[in-house]
Specification:
Helix 5 packs antiparallel against helix 6 and helix 9 packs antiparallel against helix 10. The protein contains 12 helices and 7 strands. The protein folds into 2 domains: about 90 residues, OB fold (Dihydrolipoamide Acetyltransferase, E2P) (Beta Barrel); about 180 residues, no CATH class. The longest helix has 24 residues. The relative contact order is 0.12. The strands form 2 sheets. The chain has a 5-stranded mixed β-barrel. Strand 6 and strand 7 form a beta hairpin. Helix content is about 40%, strand content about 20%. By secondary structure, it is an alpha+beta fold.
């Protein structure tokens, strides 16, 4: 499959090739005509696309389509004006590894790192709670993203976020020996785990929608409930201090009420979790921006960061990290899943 990457698109260039559908909806323009609004992706990034055909039917999220389009610009951001599109066929030369954004490490390796960390816990309450929660979600954890569009919005992105935060925590903990290291690590591994029930994702890591539970409660509240249920299963008292501390870390990891936390972090391990979470999310977003921004150039305004991002002309930077790709852990299973989408 020989086609330019989204990160290499330039205004005025034509494009014909295959892209993954992240989102597709029919909308109405100001003059009342229907059009399709889509987000299309490959493993280098995503781009908004418009189909100005009132009769066009939205393709399914998670499917692959072949398009003929022109790269345009709207409000300072590149956009595709799609002239024609159709679903990909089984005989098309589609390479899923080129289309599906994926974590930079195999999910089996990341999960093994996490499980080894929990196995080494000496605190029996934390070890029991984390083992119970992780054992229940091993399969979806292999492919779930950490978000629909923001940081780590990629196949196995939640594992990527968890292991990245775990490594940051392991680097910081020696600087603060008064902290309970196992509590920090437990908070890192459990803080976003309930996103698995907050979003609906296919095995490609493409989120199609949020669940009713996710919209009404959110992953912070659900995460607290899951910890309490795990405690009940193992007769851990609901007033056990480590259970309460871990629940507070889940509830407060967004930091402020305006960001969704009903409580601010109220002890050091909870504060450290919040800071590591923010740092890892922002570094991941900035890395994604650099991957699609030429060196020596400022990006468009990144709304989640409330700023433009500059791509320095690093002397040591020889290749763009977005060019790297990691094969899926089971190509046959992924191919079968893909065929089911067509």
């Amino acid at each position: 499959m020989n086609q330019p990457k989204i990160k290499a698109f330039m205004k005025g260039l034509p494009f014909e090739g295959y892209l993954l559908v992240r989102m597709a909806q029919q909308r109405k323009s100001n003059n009342g005509n229907n059009y399709l609004d889509m987000t299309l992706a490959d493993n280098s990034g995503d781009i908004n696309a418009k189909v100005w055909d009132p009769l066009a039917t939205p393709p399914e999220g998670g499917s692959v389509i072949k398009i003929r389009a022109a790269v345009t610009e709207y409000n300072g951001r590149l956009q595709l004006r799609v002239d024609k599109f159709r679903p990909a066929r089984g005989t098309d030369p589609v390479e899923l590894g080129e289309l599906v954004p994926a974590a930079p490490e195999p999910p089996e390796d990341m999960l093994r790192e996490i499980m080894d960390t929990v196995e080494a816990f000496e605190n029996p309450v934390l070890k029991t709670l984390l083992s119970t929660l992780l054992d229940a979600v091993r399969d979806p954890l292999m492919y779930y993203p950490a978000a629909q569009r923001m940081h780590h919005a990629e196949r196995s992105g939640l594992l990527h976020h968890m292991t990245s935060m775990l490594r940051v925590a392991n680097g910081i903990l020696p600087c603060y020996p008064f902290l309970d290291a196992e509590l920090v690590r437990a908070g890192v591994l459990v803080h976003d785990l309930s996103k698995l029930t907050e979003m609906v994702s296919d095995r490609m890591g493409n989120v199609s929608e949020y669940t009713t539970e996710g919209l009404l409660l959110g992953h912070l509240v659900v995460g607290v409930a899951q910890l309490r249920e795990a405690a009940r299963q193992h007769d851990i008292p609901l007033d056990d201090e480590y259970l309460l501390l871990l629940q507070h870390m889940v509830l407060s990891h967004h930091g402020k009420a305006e960001y969704g936390s009903p409580r601010p972090p109220m002890f050091p391990e909870a504060e450290l979790l919040h800071q590591i979470d923010v740092m890892d999310a922002r570094m991941n977003e900035m890395q994604s921006v650099l991957a699609r921004t030429p060196r020596g150039v400022f990006s468009e305004k990144i709304w989640s960061l409330e700023r433009r991002v500059y791509h320095p002309q690093y002397l040591r930077q020889e290749e763009d990290p977005a060019d790297e790709s990691v094969p899926f852990e089971d190509e046959d299973a992924v191919e079968q899943a893909y065929q089911g989408l067509l």
